[in-house]
Amino acid sequence: MRNSVSWAVGCLYLAAVAPLAHALDNGLARTPPMGWNSWNKFGCNVSAALIRQMADAMVRTGLKDVGYEYIVIDDCWQLSRDPSGAIVADPQRFPSGMRAVADYIHAKGLKFGLYSDAGDQTCQKRPGSHRHEKQDAQQYAAWGVDYLKYDWCFTQGLDAPTAYSTMRDALLATGRPIVFSICEWGKSKPWSWAPAVGNLWRTTGDIVDCFDCPARPGKEDNGVLQILDQQAGLEPAAGPGHWNDPDMLEIGNGGMTDDEYRAHLSLWSILAAPLMAGNDLRTMTAATAAILSNREVIAIDQDVAGVQGRRLHREGDADVWVRPLSDGSRAVALLNRGSKAIEISVSTIDLGLAPAARVRDLWLKKDVGRLGERLRTTVRPHSVAMLKISAS
Length: 392
Ligand code: GAL
Prior knowledge:
Elements: H1 2-17, E1 34-37, H2 39-42, H3 48-60, E2 70-72, E3 78-81, E4 87-89, H4 97-107, E5 111-117, H5 133-143, E6 147-151, H6 160-174, E7 179-182, E8 200-202, H7 224-229, E9 243-245, H8 258-270, E10 275-277, H9 286-292, H10 295-301, E11 310-315, E12 318-324, E13 330-336, E14 342-347, H11 348-351, E15 358-361, E16 366-370, E17 374-379, E18 383-389
Parallel strand pairs: 1-2, 1-10, 2-5, 5-6, 6-7, 7-8, 8-9
Antiparallel strand pairs: 3-4, 11-12, 12-13, 13-18, 14-17, 15-16, 15-18
Helix pairs in contact: 3-4, 5-6, 8-9, 8-10
């Protein structure tokens, strides 16, 4: 056990230093993108009014101050193409057009994102960008788009690396900095090719607002734990400018307890995941706002070294996840997957730290002492202890 753990810790360093052969160099997403996306809460029910209100709420609730930046309209903003092939936004829902939405968002100091699809249609059967990539990219740039999420429905016969590279090149050719978010659900192992193509790539099917929920028959949806388990081993692909994307946040959508939502944010931060809130920012509770805006946990996610954390070990319901940070310290998430409180412990040697290292609990927001020979904490059901442990 000790040997395999030492090997795993060694790999943390290898992953940190191994240069990636080719990574998309558009200068963007040097830390994982943070923002809000309409899909998880609103589905197709998007409009200019909703988006303006969400931008207002992002500023009013303080989320902008802690780093949330992109406001992304997911599927269903588009309606048709005009005779010249130009994409047409739904005039009922966006009566002043997309440039007006972008201007409103930019005036708040935020950034603007849109959604399209590499196929002929989007997942909700709106026009996709296949054979219109250049025209669409130019249109997005003219509107002031800063972020494009690009889906994979209705792509029969297309090759994912080729189709996504076509849109990458079209976006680069506009000269406007546009974060490129690849959404093909992990089907073609995008971690093996997407660092050269996009700034982030989905690694799984869609998240559902549920902590421990295997996919329903015939579906590819996943609870938080099911997504987490699919991230183990993908670490080497992530780094500044190119991130594994375990899907957007469900925090505040009502299907999980606050402990489960704290675990969701903590684990996504260990994973160096994009943090795209997916709830109604206008009406969220104080508890939801406090979870989404925990600066100390967000600082783990946004650590500039950009090394994705990994699972150190799993035993029964106890999972230990570790992420090395740029200042030599480690973020450690002790995760209780089960429905009873348990003690989770890990040896200081396995963590690769010294007994004198100081431990801070990032949800209690207080220093809890020295590490000693062994880290030991009782963790509530479906919960994490999220710790930052200093280098010495
Ligand atoms: C799915 C995607 C979701 C959402 C949805 C919109 O393919 O994974 O995140 O974008 O399409 O139709």
